[in-house]
User: Fold PaaI family thioesterase from Phenylobacterium montanum.
Amino acid sequence: MADGEDLFPDRPLIAEGEWAGWRLWQGSDPYEDLSGPYYSRVEPDGSVLAAFRAENKHMNGGGFMHGGCMLTFADYCLFVCGRHALADTHAVTVSLNAEFVGPAHVGDLIEGRGEVVRAGGSLVFLRGTISTGGRTIMTYSGVVKKTRARA
Assistant:
C-alpha cells in the first residue's frame, strides 16, 4: 500500500465533530450497523486504525464492556486491517481467537489495530489488539477465507 493511500474511498468521510477525518463503516453489514457505529482510517505509517465510542448498549450487567461486543469489534478489525489483502473479493471469518485482558466502560474510546501475518491464495491470517486509553483490553487473532460471490 502506498503511503497516504485511502483504503476506504467507498465509505463516507466524516467532515466535522469527534470523528472528523474518519470513514464511517455502515450499510454493508446489518449486524455491524446495529452494534456500531464503527469508524476507520489509514494512519500516516499506512496502518489501519479502527474505533468506536463505548455506549451503554455495549455493556454487560456488571457495567463493563460485554465480551461479545469486543469480539464483534475484533471481527470488524479483521476485515478493515486486512482490507488490502481482501481487495476485490468476498470473505468470511473462519476462525477468531481472543484473550480478554482488561475492562472498558461507557464513554471509553475503543481502538483496534491489526496486521496481516500471512496472506495466501484463499486464507488471510491476522492478529491485533483492542485498547482504550493506551491500555490493551483484548488481543485477537483470526483467519479470513476469501470466497466467491454467490450467483
Observations:
- The chain has a mean pLDDT of 90.
- The CA atoms of residues 102 and 137 lie 4 Å apart.
